[in-house]
Write a structure and sequence with these properties.
This protein is mostly helical and 312 residues long. It has two domains: 1-84, no CATH class; 130-290, no CATH class. Helix content is 55%, strand content 4%. The strands form two sheets. The protein has a two-stranded antiparallel ribbon. The longest helix has 37 residues, at 269-305. The chain is globular, with a radius of gyration of 26 Å.
Length: 312
Amino acid sequence: MSDDWPTLGDAPPAGISVPASGTDGAVFPARSFAADPDVPPGARCGVHTDLGAQFLCVACGTYGCGACSFATTDHGTTCRACAARGLAETVPWERRRERGWMRAFWETTRLVCMEPKRFFATPAGESGMMGPASYAVVAYTVGSGIMLLSVGLLMLVGAGVAALSGETALGAMFGVYGGCITVGFIPFALIAYPLQGLVMVLLAAACSHGTLVLLKSQRATFEQSLRAVCYANAPYFWFFVPCIGWYGSTFWVWYCEGVALREVHRTTTDRAAIAVLAYRALIFVGIVMVYGLMIFGMFALAGAGAPNRPFR
């Protein structure tokens, strides 16, 4: 992976410039800024040198004018040069009030799944973690809820087919029972899934961020790691796809997490993969060991309780 990442105090990466207008000829709207204490009087925009500077980019430390601004959060303003590797505009979910919640959710899900590199190279467009966390919870809850509904309906349809074919009344009865139980569980699942999804992203972000710290590859804050992991939950929306949904979505999430951590922490693919997979492998090994100890203990107790019989 290339090392041409912008850092504070550096000029924008070589070969990247900020045009005065968009590719379609539309002029970027100048944004209004509060007085930036980091911009001294008389400072000029680093790209449009005939214009006065209005902000100091938090990523590359270059002065910019209103047309050069990409996004502004509590941490400061990011210029378009530093955002050039990402999307043309901020993440749709971070403009959900403007674009509508359903449209913003679908567009964000599509971009994460189909263009993860560009998506995770896009700077944050809103402050705080409520936005990314709410997206992760919605993606996981909606995908899991639709999966339960589809499974329940398929069981009911199977029961109806069995009843009409006259194969066996017992099979139809079990189909109806299983389908009703599955569908009836959905309201309770919709209460449990949001909490489960939130715990999952917090655990994933903490473990992956900690792994990168141990590997000395951490170049972003925990908040940035959490934001990346939250949006990487997008493939969970496809849980409901029959047969392959659960497995495909899980591996897809791991892939998106790897791309997200690589882009956010400006590290290599192999270290990002370690951050994604190492703690999961440890959890899996731990679970196997616990079950192994339980089985061993059961056999040991059974052997200890058996009466001693003399050999003949």
